[in-house]
Amino acid sequence: MSLAGIDLAILAIYAVFIFGLAQWVSRSKSGEQKTSTDYFMASKSLPWWAIGASLIAANISAEQIIGMSGSGYVIGLGIASYEWMAALTLLIVGKFFLPIFLRNEIVTMPQFLQQRYGPTIRNVMAVFWLLLYVFVNVTSILWLGAIAVHTVTGFNQDYAIVAIGVFALAYQLWGGLKAVALTDIVQVALLVCGGLIIGFIALSTIGGAGGAVAGFHTLLTEFPDKFDMILSKDNPHYQELPGIAVLLGGLWVMNISYWGFNQYIIQRALAAKSLPEAQKGIAFAAYLKLLMPVIVVLPGMAALILAPNLAAPDQAYPTMMNLLPVGLKGLVFAALIAAIIASLASKVNSISTIFTLDLYAKIRKDTPEHQLVTVGRIAAVAAVIIGILTARPLLGGFDQAFQFIQEFTGFFTPGIVVIFMLGLFWKRASEAGALTAAIGSVALSAVFWWLQETGQFIFPFMNRVGVVFVVSLIAAVIVSLLVPAKPDAMKIKLDQISYRTSLGFNLAAVGVVAFLIVVYTIWW
After folding, report:
1. What is the mean pLDDT of the chain?
2. Residues 51, 213: contact at Cβ < 8 Å?
3. Strand, coil or helix: what is 46?
4. What is the pLDDT of residue 42?
5. Helix (H, G, I), strand (E, B) or coil at 272
6. In whole angstroms, what is the distance from residue 450 CA to residue 408 CA?
């Protein structure tokens, strides 16, 4: 695949525009210096539309677009459960988690852990998240984003890694979170438009004179098994989507961890001008998640008819891009780049936030505000440089490197959810109980993994996460009762918190639930 001159011109215009917009929206008044609140939390003034768009922009990157499209090609619509169940998870986060976080003026997840349990678990988790974000998230976005660029344009992959890293760093380095969040509405609009264009043209090509509707009907008629949302045990992809577990099992644990307690996601909501504004943003993001399968899964499913003999599933999305005429191809490629840049910038901003506020500021407590901003910028530069230098060594030699890393990331997910859920809703939870959950989650996950690797026990990853969560929860409760928290350890205010939400939020929640009931009923 190659891009024509007009396509490259559109890409260049996008790059210049989004860079200029980021600098403009995050500008300071003449003579004013940015404080840490300005830089890391966008002055706590984000409007709902910026919160909702930025949540999605931080979430969707090249590996999601190309990877989920490939999963649509192989597995079918069932992979959409990750997106659709996330919409419901977002509403739960908005209704039950955000009131506590915002009541206590939380700005980072390690800060919550310190105020709720103590400094030990804060330090452990701050270091863990930094390592995870740098060596898993940043490197994977750079590597897989560069693969996407190379696949579409033929551009040298190593040069693409550097170009993506430098641009994502440059456009958010001066303005911080405000530069990222206030431009993400443009990034997401481009992503949605690009995905809808590909889906529409692909289905129209299948449908011929009947158009996109006829194309969808043809797809449904020829591949009815690809529309199964709940896979049976005899399905070859049951290990990836183990039946009813996508509704009642481990997927909940993964979603709650990701959307509720993940710094680079929740940071946008924590920077809201008010709780109602944050909840409106959450509802907006939930509806965007409902739309995501149309954008990223449907093109892969259309490739079942238009490109039935692909060498690899991940070629589905780039192959569908070949259907686009000159000009539109540049627009859709710009949307793909937008997803990569926005997601990477979000990770880098959160790395600088955790490093500066949870580690540096705790060691050097009298550091002036302007110096904290400088430290944050240095941390961002260091994170990108490390990511660029380690992307190929970490991921380049293994076809399944990203999946391998994700597997081990899941070792920690059940423990993280236990720690936060008990911290939010059970006053007797202690630091000893929290550490038990963290250690137990890793140990038990390792046992399950070893049993599966040695062929002694085949257990779907999603089910493993659910079982480890339940066991870790029971262990944390028992240890908390045996080793109570110190009287002065609890500094989180759980009183005077209202879980009442606006009529608009409630109606939005009803709409999401109704949508889920309909799609799972039709394509169970």
Report:
1. 86
2. no
3. strand
4. 80
5. strand
6. 12
